[in-house]
Automatic annotation (TrEMBL):
This is Septation protein SepH. Residues 1-171 form the DUF3071 domain. Residues 210-263 are annotated as: Disordered. It holds the Pfam family DUF3071. It comes from Mycobacterium deserti.
Length: 263
C-alpha cells in the first residue's frame, strides 16, 4: 500500500489534495462520513451505503483455486462471490485437473484392512463389491479434494434405485500406489472382505428327501387292452406237420391190433 499525505484543499474547499510519499503524485480525496468516522476513530461498518454493501467481493485467482482445491465447485464459488462463472472456470480448470488426477491415483491404491493393506486395489475392490450387489460400477463417479491438513479425501458416488449414495476414503500416496482407509460406514462396507455376500440373503429351498423307512410301493401293472373277436373264417388255420407214425403198444401187437385201429 502506498502512503499518502494531505497537502491541502481544492479551490472549492470540498476536496482534499493528497500527495504520494516519494513520487510526488497527487490524488484528490472527497471527504464523506466514512472518512470523518475514520478520523474520529469511530467504527465505519455501519457507514456503508446499501449500494456498496450489495457489491460482491471480487475473488483473486489464488483464492478461487484454493476453494476449488478444497472441494468447492465452480457453481458454488460463482454463486457465493457473485463473479461470472466464466471467470471462475478459467482459474479453476487446472485445479480441477489436479483433483481428477488425485482421484485416479487413489483408485490404484490399496485399501487398509484389519490385517494390513489389501492385495487388490481400491478400484478392483469397489468394482467387485458393486457387482456383487447387483449395481453397475461404470455408473459410479470419483472425486477428490485436499483438506486443510494437506491430506486427500476421495469420494465415490453411485446410484442404487432412486437413492444417491456416497462413500469417503482418506488417500495417502506412497510406494506401490499408496493406501486408502475408510472414512465412513459406506466406505467400510465397500472394502469389507466379505463383500461377496448379498445384501438380502435368500434361504435355499430345501429338497424333499424320501424317508428311508418308508416302504416302496410296487408299480401297478398296466391293464391289458381289450381284444377284439376275430371271425372264425379269418382265423389262421394251423398247419399240419408231418411227423413219424405212432408206434403201437406191445399188447396191441400180441392181440393183432393194427396201428390204424382196425382188426
Amino acid at each position: 500500500m502506498r502512503e499518502l499525505r494531505v497537502v491541502g484543499l481544492d479551490v472549492d474547499g470540498k476536496r482534499i489534495i493528497c500527495e504520494a510519499a516519494g513520487s510526488g503524485e497527487k490524488f484528490m480525496l472527497l471527504p464523506d462520513d466514512r472518512l470523518r468516522a475514520a478520523v474520529s476513530g469511530e467504527k465505519t461498518g455501519q457507514s456503508k451505503t446499501r449500494s456498496e454493501a450489495e457489491v460482491p467481493s471480487v475473488l483473486r485467482p489464488k483464492e478461487i483455486q484454493a476453494r476449488i482445491r478444497s472441494g468447492a465447485s465452480v457453481e458454488q464459488i460463482a454463486s457465493a462471490s457473485g463473479a461470472d462463472i466464466e471467470r471462475v472456470e478459467r482459474f479453476a480448470h487446472p485445479v480441477l485437473l489436479e483433483r481428477s488426477r488425485a482421484a485416479e491415483l487413489a483408485t490404484a491404491a490399496h485399501p487398509v484392512l484389519a490385517d494390513g493393506p489389501s492385495v487388490l486395489t481400491l478400484l478392483e475392490t469397489v468394482t467387485t463389491a458393486l457387482v456383487a450387489r447387483g449395481l453397475d460400477p461404470d455408473a459410479s463417479n470419483w472425486d477428490a479434494w485436499r483438506n486443510e491438513d494437506g491430506r486427500w479425501t476421495v469420494q465415490l458416488s453411485w446410484k442404487a434405485g432412486l437413492s444417491d449414495n456416497v462413500a469417503h476414503f482418506r488417500f495417502a500416496p506412497g510406494a506401490h500406489g499408496g493406501t486408502v482407509t475408510a472414512f465412513d460406514d459406506a466406505a467400510s462396507e465397500l472394502i469389507d472382505p466379505d463383500f461377496a455376500r448379498p445384501l438380502r440373503p435368500v434361504a435355499a429351498v430345501p429338497q424333499l428327501a424320501r424317508d428311508a423307512d418308508e416302504p416302496e410301493l410296487p408299480l401297478a401293472e398296466p391293464e391289458p387292452e381289450p381284444q377284439q373277436e376275430v371271425p372264425e373264417a379269418a382265423k389262421p388255420r394251423a398247419r399240419r406237420t408231418k411227423g413219424k407214425p405212432a408206434v403201437p403198444a406191445w399188447e396191441d401187437v400180441l392181440l393183432g391190433v393194427r396201428s390204424s385201429g382196425q382188426r
